[in-house]
Amino acid sequence: MLVAASLCALHVVLRPAAVDFASGDLRSRLFGAGSYLWSNNWFGGHSLPSYGLIPPMLGSWLGVEVVGIVSVLAATWCLTRVTERCVELRPTLADPLFATVLFAIGCALNLWAGRLTFGPSVAFGAGCLLALQHRRVAVAALCALGCGLSSPIGALSLAMVLAGCWCARSFSRRALVAIAAVAVIPVALLAVAFPEGGWYPFTGGGFVLLVSGLALVAWLGRRERVVVWTVAVYAVAAVGAFVLRTPLGGNIARLGWLAIGPVAVLNMRRLPRAGALLIAAASIMWGWSYAKAAFLPTDATADPAFYNELADFVNAQPGGIQRVEVVPTATFRQADELSFKISLARGWDTQLDRKYNPQMYDRELTHAEFREWLRDNGVGLVALPLGQLQAVARAEADLITSHPDYLEQVWRSDQWEVYRVVGSHPLASGGAEIRQVTPDSLVVNVPHTGSTTILFRYTKLYEVTAGDACVSEAAGGWIALQVYKPGLVTLTAKLSINALLPTEATCPS
Question: Does the pLDDT at position 272 exceed 70?
Answer without folding.
Answer: no
